[in-house]
Amino acid sequence: MVSKVVRARPAPASGIAKHVRGASVSTTASSKTGTEEGSVAEKVVLKRAATKGVPSTSSFAAKAETKTRTTAAVKGKTLLKHEIDDVEEGHRVFKRRHVDIPEEPIQQDESQIEADRIAAELIEADAKVVPEFKEEPVELWDDLDAGDWDDPFMVSEYVVEVCKYWKKLEVETLPQGDYMNRQAEITWEHRGILVDWILQVHARFNMLQESFLLSVNVLDRFLSKRQISIGRLQLVGLASFLIATKFEETYAPSVAEMVTLADKQYTADDILKAERYILKTLNWDLRSPGPMNWLRRGSKADHSETKARTIAKYLIEIGCLEWRLVAVVPSLISAAALWLARLTLGREEWTPNLAHYTTYSEEEILPTAKIMLEYILTNPIQHESLYKKFSSRRYFRVRRPLFLFVAILTLVVCRLAPGCWRGH
């Protein structure tokens, strides 16, 4: 019975070998099938060993199974390693595509390199220099234009630029102070008589003070460029006055009235020819700002006080008659006049607001104020029209009280500038 069983089972041994070979090829065989076949082969081997006395093959089967599993594990690891190598190879190829791209070198211009080098040297030099500490000046004046923002006539948003423009114009339209040296027949005395006569005509027509100031400026600028005879001096004065009134007044006097004022010494054609010649000589430039504009600006810092402003007008007209003030800019004439007017009224302090809005300090004003005071002290009635004009009630009779304060003014000026009266 046993021998029959042994002969009838040659196939399982080959089945075991086949199973072993199949297990070595396929690493995904079912663990359940392998276990069942292994148990059958083990039973057959044990039966044969029992019938023929052959040694047990259980150790052989265990070794075969272990070897099979080891082979499968080794092959699995080999396959996994190949897959990882492929992936890494793909990454290396991908990375090489980015790294291996040649980059073109950036070429800099030589001038740019030189500029960068110089800039670096300058930065190093600035770093070595220790900056000096400078205290910013403290502004002590008040902004008086801020309250005029709603008044279109005050143009508060442009007033600073306007004053700068005036500063430029007053220098460009300033006559030469030594032009009388080039005149052959006329002198400063002749000029003073002519200006005093123009002032008389100006008062008769009751015109603006700007008309008188501009006529004197036109006269002096013309005489700075042309020589005239003494017989034509009054004609030049008439033409200058006519030009100024046409520029400043709403209704200017006619040429016939100018002929009458000159006692018909000149015809209307003479006056018109002189007018055209003067304008051509001055290149039609009538932009002189005049002292009155600066007086209004400075009076704003003085609260527009009427008496001080009226006295300042008198002193400004002294500046038109005094030959030593011909070459002084209108802004300085106005500042000196306002300073003296305030002293006359007992207000000696020159505030930061006044210094700012007149654009002059007290030290800058003193030389011009000295000349005005000398005019009053030496011969106050040398120009009769000026004396009579400011002795009237309309101008508060400022000419009379000024004599009472002239000594005080002299003392104040000498106290502020001890050497100002030495010589001329």
Automatic annotation (TrEMBL):
One of its GO terms (molecular function) is cyclin-dependent protein serine/threonine kinase regulator activity. Residues 289-404 form the Cyclin C-terminal domain. The chain crosses the membrane at residues 401-418. The keyword ATP-binding does not apply. It holds the Pfam family Cyclin_N. Residues 196-280, 293-374 form the Cyclin-like domain. It comes from the Eukaryota. This is Cyclin N-terminal domain-containing protein.
